[in-house]
Structure formats: structure tokens, C-alpha cells
Amino acid sequence: MGRLLRRAWRYLVAMLTGKLDQVSDPKVQIEQARQQHALLSQQAAAVIGNERELQLKLTRAVSDTEKLQANARQALLLADQARDAGDQTKAASYEDSARAFATKLVSAEASMRDLHAMAERAAQASAQARAAVETNALALQKQLAERTKLLSQLDQAKMQEQLNRAMDGMTELAAPKDTPSLEEVRDRIEGRYARALGEAELQSTSVEARMLQVERASIDAEGAARLESIREGLGLPSPSAPPAVEPSKKAPTDGS
């Protein structure tokens, strides 16, 4: 039961360590920063889009207001002309049209004022969104600039950890469980080598070894004699004999 709990604890620690390493990995943090910047950019785009839409509506409302105002003025001018001509019925009709245009004009001007106020607030929100995106972009660029340095440091840390683990394994005094240590392996090899040398020394000094040496010397002597016999049969000089020197011919003297 205790072994099972220790194993479960090691698994839990390894899992949590891996999760923490993953969270602290600069690659993951940079990717999260990019996602946050993309989300902020989308929100800013929506705010700017709302500002553009309100501006379009405000422009259309201004145009409609100008048209209603022009129509109201035109209706009043026609009504005045009809009265001058003595046509009161037509003058009254133009007056009614001018009144209707004026009523629509009042409603259009109220809507235009509301749109104008909304457009001003949207412009402020749009400016804030642009500033937020620019600030976040600068922060992201700074993080990207530090990314290479952080990744290099992380790789160096991993390499150093691996080296430390390797050195710990080499300098560990107690071998795990049944695995022999390097010193034990060396002692076993040196022991086997010493025993082999001792056996070879005993064999070289035994009676059988000396008898074999005598037999080997006899065989070598017989072989040398046989080779010398073959060489004499061929008329060849022995390689150990000094070369024969021919007598030099003396020149005749004057007294001979």
C-alpha cells in the first residue's frame, strides 16, 4: 500500500511539474499573448465599425433633414404664390404639406441630435480602442523581442539539468537495487584477469609445459637440419656461412 501511494505521489508530482513547465514555457506565453492581442483587435474593430456605422447614419440623417427643410420652404413658397393668385384652396393644401414637412423635420432633427451624440461617444470609444491595440502591440513586440533570449536560456537550463542528472548517476555511491556499481564491475574484471594470469603462469612452469618445450626444440632442430640437407643438395650456400672470397689475380712483375 505504501509503495502504491509513493508511486501515485511521484506520478502526481511529475504531472504537476509538467503542467507548470508548460505554463511557464515562453512559447506558450507568447502564443497566449498573440491570442489575446487578436481578441483585443477584434473587439477594437467592432468598436471602430460601430463608429463608422453611426457616422453613416448621421450623414444620412443630415441629408434627410436638409431635404425636409427644403421641402418645407418650397411648400411655403408655393402656398404664398397660390394666395397671391387668389387660390386659397391650393394655398391651404401647400400649407398642410409644409406643416407635414415641418413635423417630419422636427423628428428628423431630434434623431440627428441623438445620432450626433452617439457618434461622439463612439468616436471616443474608437480612439480608446485604437490606443489599447497600439499599447498591446508594443507589449507584444517587446515579448517577441525577449522570446529568443528566454528560449535560449530555457534550452541551456534543460541541458544543464540533463548534465546534472548524468553526473549524479556517475557519482552515485549506492547502486540501485541489484545493479552492480562501476567499482564492483572493475573489481570483478581485475579478479578474472589476475586468475587468468595465474593459470597461465602455472601452466608455463608445469612439467607438461617443459616437456612440450623440449619436444618443440627437437622438432625445430630436425627441421633446420633437413632444410640444410636440401640446400646442400641444390648446391646453395648456407645463409649462416660467410661468402666465399675469390683469390685476386696478381699482375706479372718485370723480374718474372
Describe this structure in words.
The protein has 256 residues and is mainly alpha-helical. Helices cover 84% and strands 0% of the residues. Helix 2 packs antiparallel against helix 3 (88-171). It is rod-shaped and about 170 Å long.
Could you give the topology of this structure?
Layout: H1 2-24, H2 26-84, H3 88-171, H4 182-204, H5 207-233
Brief characterization of the structure:
This protein is an all-alpha fold.
Main attributes of the structure:
single chain; mainly alpha; 256 residues
* Helix share bin: over 70%
Largest sheet data: none
Total number of beta strands: 0
Question: Averaged pLDDT, please?
Answer: 77
User: What distance lies between the first and last C-alpha atoms, to the nearest angstrom?
Assistant: 127 Å
Radius of gyration, in Å, reads 57 Å
**Helix segment count?**
5
Shape: rod-shaped
Oligomer: single chain
The unreliable regions are: 19-23
Beta-strand residue fraction? under 5%
Instruction: Output the helix-strand order.
Output: HHHHH
Which structural class matches the secondary elements?
A: mainly alpha
